[in-house]
């Protein structure tokens, strides 16, 4: 896409802004010429060069010095644009970018080309930032939205306020320096002040951000119905529980759940010593490989590396029960119940700690199991392992709950 095309395209989207003004909204040409004297010597338009050549060559996008104040009227007939700096395979990007907010929207990742990003912003009535990182590019995007009168919303699916640093999974699990985490959280949370609206995935996140934004709404995580397995495709293989071991699965998106897992490590080891031939325990995702310990005891176990999202759902479907231990902290109370949704979509129930979002969707022994302490984890897991057929009806009920309340 040439500069003439991009400038004319942006002007057609916002005819209230002249092409000359648009050029100055895109690039600081003086700084660009200063950094790249070869471009100035060739007498090439700075914007022209960056859009057509500079970006592909790895040259720096010299952002113009825009103020935060609005300049142009708000666009009221535009689209909703979602922008995320998260990796494409991130659960937050998948849920919040495509499933919850994505219908009828333009979804852009951090790898979006300049022309694509600018076209999206200029065509937008609202831009939703997913877990934004406070850097020069993000500040430019926010300032540009302000200039164009584009509504700016922040989508939050975790509690990332710096005052809760001690409760963050990374801090408690010791996977990263607490000071480093605090500095990132302090810097990124400052972006909340620029938002016209905060969209929260849970009630607890919304409550803890009261007073920090002009408007706060709650939009819970949901899964598209096409990812839910039909009854005939998974219930049939749940009828042979008397003939085989119970298959347990621990899911973890990262090393930050190390402290959470410690809640049930002792319980699982005790059960593995008492009844090693009655169940298997597999570990999925980014976490320490605990399988060797269980195999040594004589309990079948394996580690399954992180897989693409839909492959993960297939892995869940191969098991009977998903384990969701969570420490009793405000941070975990603010977390979404996505593990319940994912497992239930495949007809697999979960046994979880009594964190708020799980407490709100699980009726104990009906569509899942809830545990308040180590004793309950032991007693309920022992019962399920001893009579694995109990997961059949509970899994059906979990599937019904998720389909009714957490599907789109």
TrEMBL record:
Organism: Lonsdalea iberica
Listed Pfam families: Glyco_trans_1_4 (PF13692)
Gene3D superfamilies the UniProt entry points to: Glycogen Phosphorylase B (3.40.50.2000)
Name of this chain's protein: Glycosyl transferase family 1 domain-containing protein
